[in-house]
Every structure is written in C-alpha cells, then in structure tokens.
Design brief:
about 70 residues; alpha+beta; four-stranded antiparallel β-sheet; 1 helix; DUF397 domain-containing protein
C-alpha cells in the first residue's frame, strides 16, 4: 500500500500550491502515477520495467515528430 510519504511531486509542478502536475510513487514491482490536483483518485500503475522507456518516449515526443507544437 502506498502511503502519503511515498509520493514524490514532479519538479515541474509549477508555483502556488504546486498542484499542476503529477506525483509518482515507486513500489517493488510497479510505479504509480497520480494527478496532484486529485490525489484521492485511483492512480495509474505501470510495471517498473516499462516506466523508464515510457519516460524516454515522453521526453522524445517534445523534440520532433507529429503532434509537436512550436511557439510562434
């Protein structure tokens, strides 16, 4: 079971209450992700082995390719 102290807020949570992002908790076999604005909702869970490739894909998505948004 994940306890409140288990959750880590993203460093990109923004100012104010810092509730404009996600929180992550590491378990022995899974990684859980929840919305910091609504922590009571059921978190998404990923196998730990799939989480690192998922993050790499997110990081790469902002650099090029379809769906990329550029400031004008």
């Amino acid at each position: 079971m994940l306890t409140p102290g288990t959750w880590q807020k993203s460093s990109f949570s923004g100012g104010g209450q810092g509730d404009a992002c996600v929180e992550v908790a590491k378990g022995p076999t899974h990684i859980a992700v929840r919305d910091s604005k609504d922590p009571a909702r059921t978190p998404l869970t990923f196998p730990a082995t799939a989480f690192a490739p998922f993050l790499q894909a997110l990081k790469g998505a902002g650099t090029s390719g379809p769906g990329t948004h550029h400031a004008s």
